[in-house]
Specification:
The protein is an alpha+beta fold. It is 28% helix and 27% strand. It has helices at residues 9-39, 148-156, 158-169, 171-182, 315-323, 328-338, 346-354, 359-368; strands spanning 52-54, 61-69, 76-83, 87-94, 103-106, 110-116, 121-126, 129-135, 211-216, 225-228, 236-240, 247-250, 253-254, 256-259, 264-268, 277-286, 292-301. Strand 16 (277-286) and strand 17 form a beta hairpin. The chain is elongated, with a radius of gyration of 36 Å.
């Protein structure tokens, strides 16, 4: 038997209000649960994340999907980071209003490169601009909009961010790794059946030596010569090793070091006064297995020419003073005080003697002559 329930006007109004408020609230709760589930996904494993290889035969380019954040991490764009031998290029894909965030930076312009462990980002300076980037798979673009979402996204892409850092430090090593992984397997050739015998002992490969990347002075590398006109010199770089933090020395003296993670350290020298001419530099990094890596180069120092005193005397001015009855000893004092702005030849000195110049004046002129 069916029952009919009659509601008063007040009862119908209350029921309608309940439905209007409750249904959207359930939908909102479901959306929040779905979003929370995506952000709570486990972080990536420690497996090496390899970039996409483009133009392998002409201009090898290693491409990563990334996000670029402002200092406040509240303004984020997404796109492709292309790393080459000559530098990096960032192309924004979304959002459209951030297309101006794209940038180029040559290898020489990149400095203060660091891997920030606390928030899993790579930071560096492009000229005077500080850049912060981190790995975000293309399917997750748009997921890091600040706050907890930002830190969840950087944690999830931590291994990819480490690959970006390694590629910027040593492009050739990452390129070789990507090429070796992409190489097709060698064809299998059936071997004739032979009686089984004990397998020979396989020699254990020796541990690999550390890697050294010199960032300052610019252009320094194995067997290279770097021209400088400023002294003193501070040598900077990064040393890496798969077994731990290597120990670095520069010309036999321990370098200053600041570890960046468990396998890499930034290093720098004390200020090195330079003498005119060539100065050999040798950097050595050694690991716990006593394997060493060396980088040797030469710094050629040419001091800047000293500025000429605007009151320095020309040859004609010296002769004019002598012919104007100024004593030669007084002219010598003026030369010692102001200097000269010409390189005297034997004929010049004879002309000055003929005008009344003394040997005291000749000696003052010779001592004040600019270096040849």
């Amino acid at each position: 038997m069916r029952q009919t329930i009659y509601l008063s006007r007040m009862g119908r109004t209350a029921l309608l209000s309940f439905l209007i408020v409750t249904v959207p609230s359930v939908a909102s709760a479901q959306a929040r649960a779905k979003k929370s589930s995506r952000l709570a996904a486990p972080a990536s494993s420690n497996t090496e994340v390899q970039p996409q290889l483009l133009n392998a035969d002409t201009n090898p380019t290693l491409r990563f999907p990334i996000a670029r954040a402002s200092l406040s991490v509240s303004s984020i764009s997404y796109g492709w980071l292309d790393i080459t031998r000559g530098g990096i290029h960032y192309t924004v894909e979304q959002p459209p209003k951030k297309l101006d965030d794209s940038f180029n930076a040559s290898t020489a312009e990149i400095r203060d490169l660091k891997l920030e462990d606390r928030n899993n980002t790579v930071v560096f300076r492009d000229g005077n601009k500080r850049e912060t980037v981190f790995y975000v798979p293309q399917d997750n673009w748009g997921s890091a909009r600040g706050g907890r979402e930002f830190f969840a996204a950087t944690a999830e892409g931590a291994s990819g961010t480490q690959s970006i850092y390694k590629t910027m430090l040593d492009f050739e090593a990452m390129l070789a790794l990507v090429k070796s992984t992409a190489a097709p397997p060698a064809p299998v050739i059936a071997a004739p059946v032979v009686p089984a015998s004990p397998p020979p002992s396989t020699p254990v490969a020796p541990p690999a030596p550390p890697a050294i990347v010199v960032s300052s002075p610019s252009g320094a590398g194995e067997n290279q010569t770097v021209e400088l006109n400023e002294s003193p010199l501070v040598i900077r770089g990064v040393a890496m090793d798969s077994t731990g933090i290597p120990v670095v020395s520069i010309n036999g003296s321990p370098a200053n070091m600041r570890p960046q993670n468990t396998q890499a350290t930034e290093f720098w020298s004390d200020p090195l006064p330079l003498q005119p001419g060539a100065t050999p530099i040798q950097i050595i990094a050694s690991n716990s297995a006593h394997m060493e890596a060396k980088v040797a180069f030469t710094v050629h120092y040419t001091p800047k020419a000293a500025p000429v005193n605007p009151k320095a005397l020309a040859k004609a001015e010296i002769i004019s003073l002598l012919q104007g009855a100024v004593p030669a000893s007084r002219v010598a004092g003026i030369v010692n005080e102001r200097g000269i702005k010409f390189t005297p030849t034997a004929d010049d000195l004879n002309e000055i003697r003929a005008a009344g110049g003394s040997e005291e004046l000749i000696q003052a002129i010779q001592q004040a002559a600019p270096p040849k």
